[in-house]
Every structure is written in C-alpha cells, then in structure tokens.
Amino acid sequence: MSRHRNVRNTAYDDYDDDDIVGSVSDEPECISPTDAKQWIFDRAKGQSSLEQFLSKNEDIQEEVEENNDDRNIFDGKVRRDSEHYQLPDLNDIDKSKLLSCMEEIRNIIGETYSDKRLVEAIMSNNFNFDKALDCLLNGENNNTQQQRSKTTETIEKGISNVLYEKSQQMKQQRTKLTIKITPASKIKTSGFEISSPKVQSPKTQSPSGSGRNSPDEEQNKSNRTKEALRNARELYEKERGSEKEQLHLVVIGHVDAGKSTMMGHLLYDLGNVPQRLMHKYEQESKKLGKQSFAFAWVLDETGEERTRGITMDCGLQRFETPTKQVTLLDAPGHKDFIPNMICGANQADVAILVVDATRGEFEAGFEQGGQTREHALLVRSLGVSQLCVAVNKLDNENWSQERFNDIMTKLKQFLKQAGFKDSEVHYIPCSGLTGENLVKPSTEPALKSWYNGKTLLEVVDSFKVPERAIDKPFRMSISDVFKGVGSAGFCISGRIASGHVCVNDKVLMCPSREQCVVKYITIDDVQVQTAFAGDQVAITITGIDPSNVSVGFILCDTLNPVPLETKIKARIIVFNVKTPITIGYPVLLHHHSLVEPAIISKLKAQLHKGTGEVIKKNPRCLTNNSCALIELSFQRAIAIEKYSELKEMGRIMLRVGGTTIAAGLVF
Fold first, then answer.
1. Per-residue DSSP letters for 167-230?
2. pLDDT tens digit sequence for 238-261
C-alpha cells in the first residue's frame, strides 16, 4: 500500500492547484511482460497467416470487386449510393424537371434503383418520364441477368449445394416480385385516384426485335400516360358537374356613374344583404349627409371609400342567378385607380358598363376624356367580349326614350370600333337608387310604355360562360400575399388562368424558380381538394420564403414552367397619346397583377388595323389609333407567355403617366 495515497489523512492545502485528486496523469501505463507478448509480431507466422488468408478469400475478393454496386440476392434489398451522390450541375428549369421525374418514378418503383441510375436514365431520355421508366424496367433486365449470373458462379465455388439451391429459389422469388411490381394498378396522387402508366413486359418486343417500342407506340403510350395521369376534364365533371356554372363579372364605368349603388341595390334585392345591416348603413350614411350612398356601402367597405364617396379598390361579392354562380367585381372608376381596375378586369369573363344618363354627366364621361371610353377599351383588350350597357339614373330624365336612344346610338358606334359585336352587347335602362329594372321588371309607367325587355339580372343570367383552359398547364397570377391562419406556411390569392391544382401538389414560383408545396386550397372561405381554371382561390403554400414572393408572380406547373423573358414581341393598338411613340419610349407594362417598367426597344412594323398586313417596316414613330408590331425590353426577367400558347397569359397593357396608351398581345 506504500505506493498508494493516504486519501483519508491527506492535507490538500499542501498540493499545488494542478496536483489534485482525480487529475489525469501524463505518464504511460505500465504493461506487464505477460501482456507485452501480444504486441510482439512474429514475422514468419504473420506472413504465412496472411498468405493463407488471401488464398482462402481470393474468390470473395473477386466477388466484392465485381459486385461492388450490386444487390444482395439473399435479402432482396438494394444498397444505394444515393447518400454520397451529387446531382449534376443543371440550370433551374432542367433541375426542376429532373427532381419532378425522379419523384414520379420513385412513386412507382420505390427504392429499387439508386439516384445515380435514375439520373442517368432520365437525362439520357431528355427528361421524358415514360422513356426513363421504360429504360429502368425494361432495359435493365439484361444487365441484371448478367450480374446475377456472375454472382451465382462465384457463390458456386465457395458455398455448399444447399446454399446454392436456396439462392436459386430466392432469385426466382425476386424475379416474380419484379414482375408483380411492374403493372401497378392505381396510384394515389394529390387527393384523387388515377390510373398508372402500363409498363410493358420485358418479353414484349417491337416488330424490329430490338426490345424497344416503335416511335408510334412510344407516342401513343405517352399520350395515354398523360391522359391517365391528369384527365382534367373528367375530374372537372366529377367535381363540378352538378354545380352551377361559374361566371366572373366586372362592373366598370366613369366615376360617379352609380356602379356601387346599383350593384349594392341588386344584392339587397336578391337577399344577400340582411335587412338589419341595410338599416345600419342607412342610419350611418344619413348622419354623414350621404343617405344616397347607403347601397354603395355594401361594396365600399373601407372608411376612406365611404368618407370620399368613391370606390378605390375592387369590391368582391357573390350572388346566384337561376343558372349561374356569379363573382361580382366592383372596379373603381376614378382615373387614379385604373391599375386596380385592370387587376379586376383581368379576372373577369363578362362586364357591365354603367353610364350616367343625366345630361352633361354622360358627355363628361364619354366625350371629354372620361373613363367610359378607356374602361371599355381596357376590358375588350383583356379578352372580355360580352358586355351589358346599363343606362343608369334614367329616372333623372323622366325615363325618356329619346335620351336612352341617343346614348345607345353613340355607344354602339364606339363599341363596334373597339371590337365588340352588336349581338354580344345588351342595353338596358335602369335606376340603381330606386331599383327599377334590376331584379324585377319595372313598375314605372313611364318606362313600361316603351321598354319591355330583360332586367339586369336576366341579362347577367343569359351571358355565356367562356371555355376554361382546364387541360392546359397550371398557371395562376398572384394578386395578394398575406399571412394565413396557423403556422402552415403563408397564403397567396389570385385567379387560376389555366389548368388545375390539387392539395399536396408541388408547384413552381416564377420568376424566382423556387419550388413549393400546396398545403390548403380555399374557395369562398371553404377548403377544397382541387381548384380549376377560372376559380378565384386562396392557396396556402410551404417550402418557400414569403419575402421571395411578390404580387404579379406566377405559380405554375413544375414540368411545364412559364417562360421567363427579358424581351418580348407584341402586337399593340395605340390609343390616344400626347406625343408619338418612338424607340426608347419608357412605359409601364401591366400583365395581370404585375406592373413592370419597360422600354420600347424596336418598332418593327406598322400594321393595318383590319387585316394585320404590314404597311410600313421600321417606322420612325407611332401615332394615335395605329397598330404596330414592337419589341419591349425589361431590366429583369418576367414570367409571360405567348398569346398563341395561352390566351389568358398573353395579353398586356401599356401605360404612361396614369394614362393607358396601348394594349396588345404577346407574339
């Protein structure tokens, strides 16, 4: 015990700070002579043991070298090298296509192949999902059989006959398992069931005997796959077949024409506004000395709008007619809020143009630089072809038929020049304040004596719903970004221009090219699983930073992203401009909710307004009412599409100094 410390009687004050109980000693541990023998290497014995080991395991080394990437045939599992595999350096579009294809293939074949093999198959087939899947399931059979045969030969040399028979049995079971996996009957995708692509058996060969399908068969197979994956028409009929048709209606016209009052009274007569709430609006407007504005407050909900007595943003309400569900967009009439009006008109299928029949007021809005002309031109340029002209406040003119005919004659000529067909324009006399001829036929004797046509509600119900681009790639223009309820991402709202989207779909945010996931879809505050072209929706998304999303961005399909352009060609119609348009002319481009500075970099040709023929190449300038082919340049890339590819994404507006100078189509 002499070499051990006397712990009980130790005086710790006598030690230095570093010399304390429990400190680690730097001295090496002692090794007894007996234990030291294990560290002595016998060169002769070690050399003979190594030679013996190598001779016994020569076959095993060959097997490991030959089958370094191969599968273990006894447990049927695959050893993947995906953990250390780096994806190739690609641009954003190709990378998005690659990841989407990989995910779709994984949904069908599971973890059977490594990421490296998937990438090789996808890129060798130019990101074609069908061909890559065929390459993996059909083209791999020969290589797999060769690798298995080599492995079997190696096993036969060093394994007993019992293990060899067992390996053969396991190989047969695995072959049967592969064949069973191939024709997956159904795949669950985004909340609804779709048929999976039928994979051809490895034994099936083309007539040429090459083992691959002929080009015609490949094309037909691709068409069948696309139809099976997302047959949007059938899905739409299943989801919406029993519902009324959806119609988006925008109300436009000069400031103080009575748009909000008319539509507020319409909603009240339809029972969409409770009597108690209407009584409250009447009392509050009476206190402010604006009793005639009570019906307008149904749509003008903000305090500033009610104080100023004008609409500043697009009011949104919904009502039903006998055959349709109508989304009402009350656009502002003041010239300072034309951009808001353009956003509303971009979402519309049809329009109501409200004009004030009072003498002097109609002329101010139509002939003296008012917004009646500009609004009509804007909605026509944005694709609205069906129009109802509501001649409002005709009671101020004692329901004069002469005044009504005078207004109708002036508007007919102008609207025809703007591109509206006479058969698609309806004219009705009405009064928004008294409610005459809005929902029920008029009881006013002075009006009944000469008018027995449709009411405003009947005209709206007679509008035809435009054909929706449901079977086109998914496109949605973002009109608002806001924080949703809960912690699951954030919300964006807008109208779906084409295609459809489902919950849990992966989508692409353009022009940032970031991928995100759809968590929730809401229509009219009701959560749904699927939304289609024409729907006004709020979508909750995750996987992307909200600071990287802005109004005017486009949400689109990952496999068919919207193009990004810094230069576009457009065919435009010039309205009234104070100075001629020349090269280098700065403008503001309006595309859905996007407002982007641009420069007219080229004037390629001046065109005939009626036939579209080239009148003059490379003109020096463009004047009023001219038609031309121009080139626009931007400082950054914007998400925009050609009109020939998708009409809803190919219309633009050009504005300068608060005035719309031109409208056109992207070529």
1. HHHHHHHHHHHHHHHSS--EEEETTEEEEPPPPPPTT---TTSSSS--HHHHHHHHHHHHHHH-
2. 777 777 888 888 888 888 888 888
